[in-house]
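Q: How would the structure tokens look for this protein?
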Amino acid sequence: MISARPAKTIGDTQTPRRLSTMDTQQQTSGSVNGSVGNTPRKDVGDGPRTMSDHLPTTSLEPVIDGDLKVLHVLEHPTEVLCCRFSPDGAMLAVGLKDGTIKIYSPDNGSCLYSLADDDTKKSRLPCTSIQFKPSQDVDKFQHLLLATYASGFVKFWHVASGSCLKTHNENRQTLTSAFNSTLTNYITAGCDGSIRVYDLNAHEPLHKCQATESRAVMDGHRARIFAVKYHPLDAFSFISGGWDDTVQYWDHRLEHSVKKIYGPHICGDTLDIDPHRNLILTGSWRKHNSLQLWDFNSGELVQDIMYDVNPCLLYSASFVGRDKIAVGGSETNAARILDRRSYNTFASITNLRAGVFCIDHCLKPGSEIPRLAIGTLATVFVVENRPMKY
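A: Here is the predicted structure in token form.
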């Protein structure tokens, strides 16, 4: 049960509302096929799987509750694994299971570009993460995009021309990536438990951050890494998380991690840092203690966030500005937006046919209303979250 404000802004009604095509502007680029189920993302690129083993026999309609306005419903011919707004909010990139990246206008829902080349068409393995490079005055190109793939490719795309400017083949399943705050470096991580550090200007690999060979020391990861995040105020420091139930602290100039947190079981993009309060947010793929706050400096647990009586097994968790948290996952197949003052859910999309694999948000310049993209199966919901009123 949602312990939050009433759904008073959805279509001028006081009750939750089921979403239909009458409520939204739907963009269709193919039929919906399902193969991403309610299990951890442990077999990305390992082979085909179908949703028939996981979907209910009855049809479901998403239920929108609280302060959300659905702008667009974007449909795709295959599953969505990642999504990302550009920093200026002008574009939304969606990474698909077949390796294609679709670029949309969040304003009208139209598909602007489709990014694929011979490498991605031949492998047809998933696009696993997307990061827009924030623009600088010295940049020759605008809207550059870093993408990783389960094939091991790491690609830099120029969105407007559809050109791939640089490709690395890491010969592993590459699952996540991040830029540092000064845009001098970026990192990638994947199935082998190591993190690769790149020079952004030269687009060349520098070295690996990894654990020592001795199993007696836990100074790095021993399993797949699904999330990496640089500290917004420190160009050298980042954190990472994955299957080995640790969050590792790193200085990207050093080979081994400098500190760790035991506990979080990370299976998706569920690491974030609040630089104002110096807090780490972790989301775990488990039923209990799935959403937690940690002190960045000490690594001590600050709070277990009990946001619902039946919480999701989380694939996505992030801060939305200073006063909200967005989460999504499987089991209950829902996306929720939480008030950071009370940790109550005040907006949600529930009753989905499968888990939520990705959520991203943006705040357009001059606007106080954040937009969110929520990916589930082959669908992305683009929504606005109206400001909370106290």
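The longest strand covers residues 68-75.

The longest helix spans residues 118-123.

Upvote if useful.
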